[in-house]
User: Fold Glycosyltransferase family 39 protein from Endosaccharibacter trunci.
Amino acid sequence: MRHAVPRTVSVHRDHVGWLAAAAVFLLALALRLHGLGDKPYWLDEVTTLRRSALALVPLVRDSLAFHHLPLFFLVESPIERFGLGPFAMRLPAALFGALACALLVPIGRDASGRAPGLSAGLSVGLAAGLLAALSPFQVQYAQEARSYTLVLCFILIGIWGVVRLVRAPSGERSGWLLYAIGTALALDTLSVALFWFAAAQLCAALIAATRVGPGGRRWFVRRWLPVQALVLLVYLPFVFTMIVLTRGRMGSGLDWVRPASVHSVSTILQSVYLLRRSSLIAFRVFPGPLDIGGLPWPGLCVLALVVLGVLLRRRETAVQVLLITALALPVGIALCSLHSSLWMPRYLMWSGPILFLLAGLGVSSLSARARPPALALIAVLGLVNLWPYYATETKPLWNEAAAFLRDNRLPGDLLLVDDPASVEMMNIQLDPRAVLAGRIPAGGFAPGDWTGDVDTALAAQRAGRRVWAVHGKVGQNDSTTLGALLREAAPLGETAERRRIGLDITLLRFAPAAPRGSLGKAAP
Assistant:
């Protein structure tokens, strides 16, 4: 016979749970605010700057015309009025990222509702929240002026709703509301939420199959289907508008994604799931302070906890729901990539916290005495593993390249660039407000200051001007290598100066050509 839990005990549990969620939120927020404005903007963030500065109707139209949903840019639009500095523009993403970590606490507690004792249920959400708060990848994307943490929050709200539906009595409405609101807003934020929508249908089929008696399968299905219709009613108008504005070429919005390779897939999996630091632009991972023998032991320990938790509690429907949700995204992206590659770290972002929930199940399987030390160990080792991230070059240093050229070029110097976007990247670092207003920043680069044509650069060199060749990563699928630029610039002769700016930018200076018949050397 099941005994009712006294109301005072239930209220106490709620208070403890919300206090735990608040503590996770504050920790996650502090880690995301630290160094929030230190790293330079990169190309995708410049899109946010430009779009957020538009008026309402042009903002929505521009978003949909470029295959983006407008919700996040509407959130950013008021921020733009107070300044275009990286800290201010990234602040919403940091807040949403911290909130996502906190949401894992109630989700984990509800998912483990049948675990014995308060500490076991709460330890699932606490472990997941700590892992997400301390994940270098999650911190990295929470320090981006982009929509990924916002869609993560909404998807977690939707998942929370589905988890509550597993054990909800027929009259309980919170699960339905959480699922509908979270899923509809997630779809209106980023289309990658479609993978969650598909996973939710599989979860619903599983829940319906396990419900018996009053409020059973038929009751559940009769309520589930109208909710899906409502969610789609909110989302599909945006899809139809995108189809019209892109003239039926919505698929062209993914033509920038590089083809999948063993290296790129391995890099993405390590950063999303194995707590490794990575570069946003280059598919590059950095060794961690706790690596031994080149292996990411913190991430491998998380996987061990996942295996332990799933094996011990695999028969529970809520656990099966989390497992379906965690697998749906990487499996779905792999299947879609057979047609067009979707292997980008941002697209797998929301599955990481679900994996952390499964790891939390492993922590909850420990004895009551072992759980607090395990949570403390996660916090300490997670912080040690995360801390080098703040000093890691995760984005190309276009701010340093712009400052160097501003201080070292002479009047008449010409830039030879292999990607015109590199000029915009340097100008935006010097003065984003001037760039958005259509002006050239002080010390910036006007159209006559650069070219992408070697013949033009050669003519300038022969006219007595110095030429700077600029190579660097701008987007995530840059096609021109430094070697290709060197071969193209070979007619300019030997380089007078070669300067490396961080990991991804190289500046080459070519001296003016010596006047014909002159026995002297060219000017430096």
Remarks:
- The chain is about 60% helix and 5% strand.
- Residues 1-5, 7-11, 518-523 have pLDDT under 50 and may be disordered.
- The chain has two domains: 16-391, 398-510.
- The beta strands are 277-278, 285-286, 414-417, 450-451, 467-472, 497-501, 505-510.
